[in-house]
Design brief:
Length: 114
Amino acid sequence: MLKLKAETNKEKEEAILLLNLRFACLISKSANLMHCINVQAKITELDKYLKGVPAPSKHFDTYFCQFTGDLCKQFSLRVNAQGEIKVARKTHQKHLANVVALEVTPKQKELAHV
């Protein structure tokens, strides 16, 4: 979860970077946020910051490093073990899961196992 009450300088800097990334996601019209130029620019800024510090704050590490954390209701952020940063629309993922679940009928499942 995005922490707005930063206590250390490191948390303040991370909060600014995360807010900027969140706003880039909010204004993006791209279905895949990773294809949006503005989002890519903010991810690059966050990546540069993460590579420039020995370790992120404990809060950032707990919520985003190797975990999928919330930027806000609509967007999630994950930094994997290799340092790759991914953002995604949460509602889009849930919607796709529901569509897939609704489209597969018992007959289709039966035919798939034949």
